[in-house]
Write a structure and sequence with these properties.
Number of strands: 33
Structural class: alpha+beta
Shape: globular
Low-confidence stretches: none
Bound molecules: adenosine-5'-triphosphate, magnesium ion
Distance between the termini: 21 Å
Largest sheet: 9 strands, mixed
Helix content: 25-40%
Strand content: 25-35%
């Protein structure tokens, strides 16, 4: 490709709304342009990198027996109603109507559509296992699109779905996918770590996220420094640590006047007590039912864990009005003792579900709100004064927690989630009735797995991980071009010819090369080449030609080498292997 004819609109400055390095560099390098919030155009250079990632992903999916399909991006509401996700998915789902008022959504994922396809086409155990995958545009109306294509609204995903006769087959295939994912990210030249993940609204029983390690990543990873354990903070288990040994004698419950004082810190100061002796409360609605999460005063709630404990996909924090309605007191004074009953929409009187963190088991003489404005209770004893519906792991892990596997110290790091694998089990096959007949003619639900990779996010993650002040430093496997040539004196026929010859030789040797033949000052062109980050750079000039040579430089290094012009293409082919 000759740059004089190629659309690479590089920019000296990043657009003002570029909020991380990759968003700035991908736009400066002329790879992408923003059309609307979270919606991007991919220009020729950007698309080349995207296609390289896509190719690697396709090869590894094919290698584990995947079959590529292409599914619609417009999906009918009825299918989403069958799984209940039309309601659960919320505002991220872009809903639309056709001219006949038929309701549809733009695909944010494709479990419903693929399961529907398979339930229609697969009948027998002989057709299983089956893995289908696609590269498809997804649309999610993200609340805060950011970081360029990293958290976009429209993005390219590889989504794969596998169907099995039983759980054991699904499990062993899951492990193959895990291996394929590791190969994909290795081949993309990324530093990454697979971690245990929360399965969130898509649900299922078992899941991992593949994280590209980067300071600017949005995800917090808890990684053991001794063993291989790694988990997303949303998932990270907190080893049980009972605070009470049960030997403290329970004191009589006491009401205390705490006007205008409601945060744990302030009440603790007032009472000269440690925040550890508090039962911190947070009120939620789980599928519309009020629930109270209870934590030790110095711990933080992990909402994903609470959702799992309440077995809900729809957890909402109670707003102030709901809070007051549920507790009968002002915000800040709720507690687990004598919590008023609650009237459900169908007229039943029910208790508020209290979910207590495991560390509170056996807690004695604790402080909490009295469900009475301006009052707290002292000497609350679990068991004597109230009984939680259950004890569960509800809190957010802390850097001081030991590894839940080996007890070793953990480290918190940041990552970008580029891939996600789920063992779904029968979560979709049961409601959608994707059944097969086993070898005894018994009808059984298929067992499913689903596996996503954010292909467009991988490109951004590679830039986030590989760049310096001058621009992008591509891993060679996904660089849009392998090499570039700058012809310094573009008005010299000799230089131009030598550059063109090298250009043709490189392409003939299988090295994808960009020739910078623009009538720009050399300094400008060198800057652009550094910005777009092509791994190998040749400079042809009158000076190098006088010696029958060409200057060679790797993007990631400062060293300048001189290569014999006649040998350059052959040498690079070997280096590029
Ligand atoms: P996140 O937690 O980052 O929102 P997710 O858990 O919603 O991701 P999945 O539903 O598992 O994502 O989708 C599979 C993959 O698609 C993710 O691993 C990620 O690489 C990519 N992806 C998800 N949302 C976006 C987005 N808004 N922009 C770009 N890529 C995305
Ligand atoms: Mg998401």
């Amino acid at each position: 490709m000759k740059l004089s004819r190629y659309l690479i609109p590089t920019l000296r400055e990043p657009p003002s709304d570029a909020d991380n390095a990759s968003a700035a560099l991908m736009q400066r390098a002329g790879m992408i342009r923003k059309l609307a919030s979270g919606i991007y155009e991919w220009l020729p250079l950007g698309l080349r990198a995207l296609k390289k990632v896509e190719r690697i992903v396709r090869e590894e999916m094919d290698a584990i027996g995947g079959q590529e399909v292409w599914l619609p991006v417009i999906q009918p509401r009825e299918l989403w109603e069958e799984t209940g996700r039309w309601k659960i998915y919320g505002k991220e789902l872009l809903r639309l109507k056709d001219r006949k008022d038929g309701e549809f959504c733009f695909a944010p994922t494709a479990e419903e559509v693929i399961t529907d396809l398979v339930r229609r086409e697969v009948r027998s155990w002989r057709q299983l296992p089956l893995m289908l995958y696609q590269f498809g545009l997804k649309f999610r109306d993200e609340i805060r699109p950011r970081f360029g294509v990293m958290r976009a609204r429209e993005f390219l995903m590889k989504d794969a779905y596998s169907f099995h006769a039983d759980d054991a087959d699904c499990q062993s295939y899951y492990e193959q996918v895990y291996g394929a994912y590791s190969k994909i990210f290795e081949r993309c030249g990324l530093k990454f770590k697979p971690v245990e993940a929360d399965s969130g609204a898509i649900g299922g029983s078992y899941s991992h996220e593949f994280m590209v390690l980067a300071e600017t990543g949005e995800e917090t990873i808890v990684a053991c420094t001794k063993c291989a354990y790694g988990a997303n903070i949303e998932r990270a288990e907190c080893p049980p640590s009972k605070d009470s040994d049960g030997r403290v004698s329970p004191l009589p419950l006491e009401e205390i006047h705490t006007p205008g004082t409601f945060s744990v810190e302030d009440v603790a100061k007032l009472l000269k007590a440690s925040p550890k002796s508090f039962l911190k409360t947070q009120l939620y609605l789980a599928d519309g039912r009020p629930v109270m999460a209870l934590l030790r005063g110095d711990h933080e709630l992990n909402e994903a864990k609470l959702a799992r404990a309440c077995k809900t996909g729809l957890l909402e924090r109670a707003n102030d009005a709901m809070y007051e309605k549920i507790t009968g007191c002002g915000v800040g004074y709720a507690g687990p003792v004598k919590l008023p009953m609650w009237r459900s929409p169908d007229g039943k009187t029910l208790p508020v579900g209290i979910y207590a963190d495991m560390s509170l088991e056996g807690a004695a003489n604790a402080v909490s709100g009295a469900n009475k404005t301006d009052y707290h209770l002292k000497n609350i004893n679990i068991g004597r004064d109230f009984q939680p519906e259950s004890f569960a792991d509800l809190r957010r892990a802390l850097p001081s927690d030991p590894c839940p596997r080996c007890g070793g110290p953990v480290r918190f790091t940041k990552g970008i989630e580029v891939g996600h694998t789920f063992k779904l089990g029968t979560k979709y096959s049961i409601p959608l009735k994707a059944h097969y007949l086993d070898n005894e003619q018994q009808s059984k639900p298929m067992v499913m797995g689903c596996y996503g990779i954010g292909v467009s996010r991988v490109v951004a993650a590679a830039v986030e991980q590989g760049h310096d002040e001058a621009g992008i430093i591509w891993p060679s496997s996904i660089a849009p071009f392998a090499a570039c040539i700058v012809a310094v004196e573009h008005d010299s026929a000799r230089v131009r010819e030598a550059a063109e010859t090298l250009y043709r030789e490189l392409w003939d040797a299988g090295v994808e090369t960009l020739l910078d033949d623009r009538a720009e000052r050399p300094g400008v062109r060198f800057k652009d080449m550094d910005l777009i980050g092509i791994p190998f750079r040749f400079v042809v000039s009158e000076k190098t030609l006088a010696q029958g040579e060409v200057e060679f430089k790797r993007r990631a290094s400062k060293d300048l080498e001189r290569w014999k012009l006649a040998e350059a293409a052959g040498r690079l082919r070997t280096a590029n292997r």
